[in-house]
Every structure is written in structure tokens, then in C-alpha cells.
Amino acid sequence: xxxxxxAAGFAAKTVAxxxxxxxxxxxxxxxxxLWPVFVLLGIETFRIDPGNTAWTPFDFISYPWSHSLAMAIxxxxxxxxxxxxxxxxxxxxxxxAAVVFSHWVLDWVTHxxxxxxxxxxxxxxxxxxxxxxxxxxxxxGALFAGAVWMYARxxxxxxxxxxxxxxxxxxVLAALYVSTAGPxxxxxxxxxxxxMGLLLGAVFIPWAAxxxxxxxxx
Length: 218
Fold this sequence. Notes:
The protein is mainly alpha-helical. The chain has helices at 3-15, 21-28, 30-40, 64-67, 69-87, 90-110, 133-153, 160-179, 190-213, and strands at residues 45-48, 58-62, 115-116, 124-125, 155-157, 215-217. The chain is globular, with a radius of gyration of 17 Å.
């Protein structure tokens, strides 16, 4: 899931508005920031396999340290605990931890059975929504549209940047999502895919933080 993760961050901001939208987006994509790092370090592996599912060409061979159930719980606690240590805001820290964990739940819905329960355990799970293009688009599109509406309704721009930076981010995310329906990366470009994954986090987390600085929660 891609824009569905951003949707979780947008929606959570309206529930516990004391943290920045950038922090919530960071929580939502945290597992996908860890994943390319682990891939580049050789700790986790995947391959480009066109036709692996109807939606994505990625075959996630081994990624238990970033995306297993047990590690998702651990990373949720780490992220929420770090926020609490810095901000001393237990309520917001709990919401952030839930957003991190929502990543695993959303992936469990979309992925074919490739999510391990914990490192070293062979059992894999996943409902496989990615095998159905129309279902994938309907679910993710509805989540994203609903969360965009929630954040837009629950905040007001302080200036033109608050209006246009937010609109631009929504547009770019939607455009990137649509682009995933195009030709897949070439076989053998796994390193490039991992680097691009890192860049997405490097771009959208500070972008979301900037948007939030120019909007006020109502």
C-alpha cells in the first residue's frame, strides 16, 4: 500500500493534532524507510518480478526486520517511545505508535502471503488485495480521499503556502500512485528502487512538516 499509508498519517493528525503532520507521515512510512536501508545493507532482499501480483512487480523475498508482525510492534514502540522521551506527551505518543503499526495492518490487507510473523519464523501471511487491481484502487483511493478531506476540514491555511503546498503534496502523491500502473522497473534495478524508496521519505516527511507549519488545526 502506498497512499493508504499517507492516509493513516493525515487522519491521525486530526485525532491528536499536537504532533506535526511531518511526524505523522514519518510514522506512517517508518517501516518503508527502514526497508530500503535494510535492503541496501543486504539484510533484507526482494526482486523485481513482473506479474508477481496484478498491482506490483515486487517479490518481497525476505524482509522480517522491517515488516514482520513482531518487528512492527517493536518499531511502533520505538517510534512512540522516542516521541514521548522528547515531548513528554503520552497520548500523542500512543497515537504515533498506532500509526506505525497501521503500516503492517494495511500491508497485511494488500500483500500476498509474504509477511512473516517474526524473524526466523517461516509462516507468512497476507490477504492479497494486490491481486485485484480494481479492489486495490478502490480501497486505497477511498482511504486517501477520506483522510485528505479530514485533514483539510480539520485545519485552515495561515497563508498561501498552507494552501498551495498542501494541494501540491496531495497532487504529487496521487500522481505517483497513478504512475505505479505504468511500466514496472526493469529486472535488476532493485538497488534503484531501494534508493527511490529512501528519497520518498526524504521528500515527503519534511514536505508534510512544512505544510503543517503553514496551517492551523481548527
